[in-house]
Write a structure and sequence with these properties.
Order of helices and strands of chain B: EEEEEEEEEEE
Number of strands of chain B: 11
Number of helices of chain A: 0
Shape of chain B: globular
Radius of gyration of chain A: 13 Å
Distance between the termini of chain B: 39 Å
Structural class of chain B: mainly beta
Shape of chain A: globular
Helix content of chain B: under 10%
Distance between the termini of chain A: 36 Å
Oligomer: heterodimer
Largest sheet of chain A: 7 strands, mixed
Number of strands of chain A: 11
Chain lengths: 116, 113
């Protein structure tokens, strides 16, 4: 089954304790992206990757890191989480079309993070 | 940062009634408009991708229209059912933006039996 998986689904942590949220897709997609969802603000892009070892900042990258060492995986790293990073996080993937794309993005189930 | 807005933020609909809501987006440099349906605790799922002015798409009781000249899209639900309860997200893609989508804040629909 084609899917995007994220782990963990729920996480409660404390300020400053490094954490990683994993994302994996089995559709051989080049493009992967992380979003955070906050009430009334929609999905805001944190980071994206166009292929292995190619990553770039989205609209709200502060406080986050990513890596893309393998095509299928795109982990999100919070080196020193703070309460304002409490949010619902989504990973998404799609094929890459450099000239523009109408490909839909496939989303993972979300990770609800609470930072105390 | 592009301005993509959805209204209303939420609405309650009686089962069997029809409803519609709006996504507004920049009318310049338009490439595509995506609609997603997001049920709580699930992944957002693609409903439509719309690219041409005047486009109309339909999937069951849900349909969407697109006006790129004035920068809006309507999503319609005909004869709402409780299973239509979800948040509906629109996402704008501009020209030369590759795969980047800019999302609106969503319209949360609750269908009451």
């Amino acid at each position: 089954e084609a899917q995007v998986t994220q782990n963990p689904r729920y996480l409660i942590t404390v300020t400053g304790k490094k954490l990683t949220v994993t994302c994996s897709q089995n559709m051989n997609h080049e493009y992967m992206s992380w979003y955070r969802q906050d009430p009334g603000l929609g999905l805001r892009q944190i980071y994206y990757s166009m292929n292995v070892e190619v990553t770039d900042k989205g609209d709200v990258p502060e406080g986050y890191k990513v890596s893309r060492k393998e095509k299928r995986n795109f982990p999100l790293i919070l080196e020193s989480p703070s309460p304002n990073q409490t949010s619902l996080y989504f990973c998404a993937s799609s094929f890459l079309r450099l000239a523009g794309s109408t490909d839909t993005q496939y989303f993972g189930p979300g990770t609800r993070l609470t930072v105390l | 940062i592009l301005n993509v807005e959805q209204s209303p933020q939420s609405l309650h609909v009686q089962e069997g009634d029809s409803t519609n809501f709006t996504c507004s987006f920049p009318s310049s440099n338009f490439y595509a408009l995506h609609w997603y349906r997001w049920e709580t605790a699930k992944s957002p799922e693609a409903l439509f991708v719309m690219t041409l002015n005047g486009d109309e798409k339909k999937k069951g009781r849900i349909s969407a229209t697109l006006n790129t000249k004035e920068g809006y899209s309507y999503l319609y639900i005909k004869g709402s059912q409780p299973e239509d309860s979800a948040t509906y997200l629109c996402a704008f893609k501009r020209q030369a933006a590759g795969n980047k989508l800019t999302f609106g804040g969503g319209t949360r629909v609750l269908v009451k039996p």
